[in-house]
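Tokens in:
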């Protein structure tokens, strides 16, 4: 891809920079106030609109399935003769590592054991006794529910709509343009296009900053746990510099080189970690729990799918599942643009397989292997992960777990590298996407201005470092985290319109039928 010096959308660029910088500054000056206010807003939104999040999630799942299994899946982005640029392997690597960041590594052990031990009261709503077989089954089933087909359907649906409107309907590469089936061209003009795109950028930029901040604290705790490296500003600044330089260089070199290479490296680390743990872990137990955990979820599919916390309670539903849904929805529009950019020449069916089915299946396998192994070791006394979480917080269990893995001294540095690589991959895909959204006339085959990608990449890294090192540690991170989640509540409205637009354009628009034709895959040499 070539770099283009196109005009900047200052009406999007400036408000986003002002809000993001203001949030970081506020986190330094009065992080307690920032945390309490954003916590209150987010808690209010989930308490009053949990029912809406659940309905949107289930409708999105249904719509993704309809697009996959009906004749609409034949539509090829760019027309029947369009040639894809990336192989399936590279495409999936960018999708997988660009979309999940460190979520699987962070929670593959921790979330399962938190449920199993009822650490924050997650089992109280269902009256399940902690540390029992019922708690085991619940822990696996609930993690499968939270991390597989429903959340990835959100990314995929936003992406498939943006890709179709851009490549086949020749609309602009923006979030607002994906809403034209509902509102017409007026949504791409004036204040509306600015509002939609600014909200989308803010949600994911703040989300990335908070994720990176939490990741810095996680990596720092891993360095301390494994090597005795004391946490502090020097460590966090050094880690920030490494991560920021990595993803900024990858972003500047472009999708075809830097991002593809970094995604390929990260995905290979993921594959190796998964295979090794499956072999050295309790293999039969893993296979059994993969089965019964999935069965437990499917047996409770409808209740879990529509419960706004009335049955399961707020400790489980509000502060785990609904929080997850809010973050995934906050990320969806911008992730959708990135997934659209790399999907040229592919059909809707292929897009949904690579962006929905395969990453969801990977999440299922990851939690089955890592979560089941952690459960087995907790029960057998090989590792007391629950105590580590109680003492050190919700993400502390992973390091206690890794201390007891055979070849643990190899696993721990590999995990730290994987965390850095995964953060870098997500950050560079998003800094590129944000830069594209802030550029007039952005195209999928042109890179945004280098200076803009550097500006976004560095700003995200700096905010994260400030929040961890100087903004009150975890509390500073929480301030931006809840602010990002509040942004997700606002983006929920945009996402609902995207769902409605997808229903209309794919199933009720006569023009779409012209694109439903048989075609053959072609990949650029």
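Residues out:
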């Amino acid at each position: 891809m070539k770099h283009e010096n196109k005009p900047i959308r200052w009406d999007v660029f400036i408000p986003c920079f002002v809000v993001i910088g203001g949030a970081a500054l506020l986190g330094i000056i009065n992080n307690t106030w920032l945390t309490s206010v954003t916590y209150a807003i987010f808690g209010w939104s989930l308490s009053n609109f949990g029912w809406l999040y659940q309905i949107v999630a289930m409708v999105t799942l249904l719509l993704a399935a309809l697009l996959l299994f009906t004749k609409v899946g034949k539509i090829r982005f760019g027309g029947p003769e369009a040639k894809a640029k990336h192989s399936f392997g590279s495409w999936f690597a960018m999708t997988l590592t660009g979309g999940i960041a460190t979520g699987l590594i962070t929670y593959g052990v921790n979330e399962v054991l938190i449920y199993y031990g009822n650490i924050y009261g997650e089992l109280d709503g269902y009256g399940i006794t902690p540390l029992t077989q019922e708690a085991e089954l619940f822990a696996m089933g609930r993690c499968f529910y939270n991390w597989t087909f429903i959340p990835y359907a959100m990314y995929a649906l936003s992406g498939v709509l943006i890709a179709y409107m851009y490549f086949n309907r020749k609309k602009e590469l923006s979030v607002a343009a994906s809403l034209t089936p509902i509102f017409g061209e007026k949504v791409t003009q004036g204040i509306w296009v600015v509002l939609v795109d600014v909200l989308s950028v803010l949600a994911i930029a703040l989300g990335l900053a908070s994720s990176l901040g939490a990741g810095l604290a996680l990596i720092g705790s891993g360095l301390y746990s494994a090597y005795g490296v004391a946490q502090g500003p020097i460590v966090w600044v050094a880690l920030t510099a490494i991560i920021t330089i990595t993803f900024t260089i990858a972003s500047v070199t472009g999708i075809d080189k830097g991002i593809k290479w970094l995604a390929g490296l990260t995905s290979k680390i993921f594959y190796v970690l998964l295979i090794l743990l499956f072999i050295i872990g309790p293999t039969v137990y893993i296979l059994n729990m993969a089965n019964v955990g999935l069965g437990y979820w499917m047996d409770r599919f409808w209740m879990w799918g529509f419960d706004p916390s009335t049955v399961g309670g707020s400790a489980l539903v509000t502060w785990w599942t609904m929080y997850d849904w809010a973050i995934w929805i906050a990320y969806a529009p911008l992730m959708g643009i990135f997934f659209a950019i790399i999907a040229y020449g592919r059909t809707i069916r292929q897009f949904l397989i690579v962006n929905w089915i395969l990453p969801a299946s990977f999440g299922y396998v990851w939690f089955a292997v890592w979560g089941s192994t952690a459960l087995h070791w907790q029960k057998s006394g090989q590792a007391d992960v629950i105590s580590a979480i109680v003492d050190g917080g919700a993400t502390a269990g992973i390091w206690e777990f890794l201390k007891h893995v055979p070849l643990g001294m190899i696993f721990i540095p590999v995990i730290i590298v994987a965390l850095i690589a995964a953060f870098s991959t997500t950050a560079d895909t998003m800094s590129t996407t944000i830069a594209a959204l802030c550029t007039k006339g952005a195209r999928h085959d042109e890179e945004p201005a280098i200076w803009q990608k550097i500006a976004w990449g560095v700003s995200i890294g700096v905010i994260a470092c400030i929040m961890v090192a100087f903004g009150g540690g975890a509390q500073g991170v929480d301030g931006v985290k809840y602010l990002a989640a509040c942004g997700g509540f606002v983006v929920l409205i945009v996402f609902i319109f995207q769902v409605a637009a997808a229903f209309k354009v794919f199933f009720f628009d006569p023009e779409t039928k012209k694109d439903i034709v048989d075609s053959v895959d072609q990949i650029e040499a």
